[in-house]
Structures are given as C-alpha cells and as structure tokens.
Design goal:
6 strands, mainly alpha, 16 helices, elongated, two-stranded antiparallel sheet
C-alpha cells in the first residue's frame, strides 16, 4: 500500500502533518458536540463534558503528532463555542475570553489547557527518550524547559557537545559564544564522547576555559546518557510542562470560593462568572441596546450584578 494509511486510529505519514490530515479529529469533535442535547445543558454540564469527553478526544493526537497551528486553533474554537453556545458553530463571542478560561483556577481561570499548549507539552515527553520522531521540534521547544532538565552524563554518545544544556543547565555555546567551536578545533556536530577518554575528560589544552570544566563536573560511568525531569521526583508530567509553558500570572483571592472540593459545577460556574462580572444583566444589555429596560424583574430597581446578589429583596428571599 501507499501512505498515508490509518494505524491504531492515527495516520502514518511520509511528510509533515497538514491540516487535511487532521480533518478526522475536527469532524469527531464537531459530531460529538452535535450529538448532545445542549439546549438543556447548564454551563456546568457543558464544563463536565468538555473535561471528560471533548478534551480526551484531542489528547491522543496531541501526544503523538505536532499538530498544525490552524488545527489547534480550530480545536479551541470548537471547545469555546460549545462552552458558550452549546454547539460547534456558535459565532457570537463568549462571556469571558478563552485565554482567561484556560488559566489555572488559582489565577482566575477554569483550569483548562489550550490545545496548542497541551500539544507542546505532550510532545516534550520525547526529550526523555532517544526518539527521532519530530526531533527538530523537540530540540526547539526544549529551551522552554532547560531549567527543569538535569543531564546525567555517562559515555557522552547521546549528548551534543556544544548545543545541549548539559553543563549546569547551559550549553557550551551559550556559555562561551559560538566562536568557541572554531577556537577549540572540534567539529560543530561533535558528541560529548569526543572529549571523554577512558572515563576522564580530554579537553584540548589550547582552550583553558574548556579545561576548567574538568573541575566543575565529573564524568560518570560508561552507562548511556540520561535526561531527568527536575520536578515531581524526577518524573515528567504533561501538566507540569503546561504550567511552565503558560505564562504564570498572579493568584486571585477568590478562587477557592468558586472552586472547592465537592462543589456543584453549575454553582461554581455561576460564582466564577460573578467574580469576572460576566453575567449579562439588564444594565449591560441596555448599554448594548439589546434591551429597552433595566428594571429588575423582582423589585423594579436597576438590575446589576451587585443588586441581584446583595441588594434585591426578591433574591434575598430565594
């Protein structure tokens, strides 16, 4: 046969993955959202379906391939549209920006991870293995996690002498500049094993800075080189990688009020919208020329978030 073919639910490709190769993923997400009776689902119900069903559909491919940017954006669009409108084809904007929804709960988000970020983090697990799949992308993305990787040098056969951050989290090119390659007389594509001889360092004596490295680190046994994850006891987790890739924001004071153990998702969602002032109350609809009256249905005063939750005598009785 000829490529591409489907194997274990994934396409086997002879070239870089294109958007056309991902139509099965997008169609599956769209069909699944269309199969639910979303008009009867609360926001909390949609939240649960997104976390348990829709997100798991894209995880398999995100952990195997580098998806095109257009595909990751379309996955996020389908998820966003389902959350706010109950279908994959909603055209109106949501009550809260998707970038805010995808923040951790303690930073005021819902704890979701965008498809692009999850794809980057999932592919980075290959760093821990001698795997050639998508290696160019992994090498590019690995700089994001340089401070969280620990190189254990053995025989030096698997480690780039100049470009891998094996020396205290920094590569030799970063430490000494690109000119160090020419000054040392060692090839640009050399492995670390080229300066190891019988378990000892064998640096060129013409470059004193390199010989000083012998005092900074010791050569280990003749075992293979290994890369360790410096978080969570040395075990790489995609969730940890996502937290590193995402820009870290400040913690909001109210997040435990909205999200706490055994909370009801529908209620938590409502409280979350309240803190972001995202409820479409009549005072906002009047300003947007959507409604002609801003009177509260229960007491006749001006309807606002503060009024409904704290001042309205009708809601107080409820």
């Amino acid at each position: 046969g000829s490529l591409p073919v489907i194997y274990l639910g994934l396409p086997l490709l002879a070239s870089k993955m294109s958007s056309m190769d991902c139509t099965v993923l997008l169609d599956k997400l769209t069909r699944r959202t269309s199969s639910w009776m979303c008009n009867s689902l609360s926001f909390g119900g949609r939240l649960q379906l997104m976390a348990s069903v829709l997100f798991s559909i894209q995880v398999y491919r995100c952990s195997t391939f580098i998806l095109p940017v257009a595909v990751t954006k379309e996955c996020d669009r389908i998820m966003r549209s389902f959350l706010w409108h109950g279908s994959a084809y909603g055209k109106k904007s949501g009550k809260v920006a998707w970038s805010r929804v995808c923040k951790p709960k303690k930073e005021g988000g819902m704890g979701f991870v965008g498809c692009r970020v999850w794809n980057q983090a999932a592919i980075l697990k290959i760093v821990n293995y001698n795997c050639s799949c998508s290696w160019r992308y992994v090498l590019k993305s690995r700089n994001l996690l340089a401070n969280y990787l620990l190189y254990e040098i053995g025989d030096g056969m698997s480690t780039s002498l100049w470009f891998d951050p094996w020396l205290s989290g920094v590569s030799l090119v970063e430490r000494y500049g690109d000119s160090v390659i020419q000054d040392s007389g060692i090839q640009r594509n050399a492995r670390l094993s080229s300066v190891i001889k019988e378990g000892e360092w064998d640096w060129p004596v013409t470059f004193p800075d390199l010989t000083d490295i012998s005092n900074l680190t010791a050569v280990l046994s003749n075992s293979t080189d290994r890369i360790h994850w410096m978080k969570k006891g040395g075990i790489f987790t995609i969730r940890e990688a996502c937290n590193i890739i995402n820009t870290q924001g400040s913690e909001v004071e109210w997040w435990k009020i909205a999200w706490f153990p055994r909370s009801i998702p529908k209620h938590s969602f409502c409280v979350w919208l309240t803190f972001w002032e995202a409820h479409r109350t009549l005072d906002k609809l009047v300003r947007g020329v959507v409604s002609s009256s801003n009177c509260c249905f229960g007491c006749g005063q001006e309807e606002s978030i503060d009024h409904l939750f704290f001042s309205c005598p009708f809601t107080a009785r409820v």
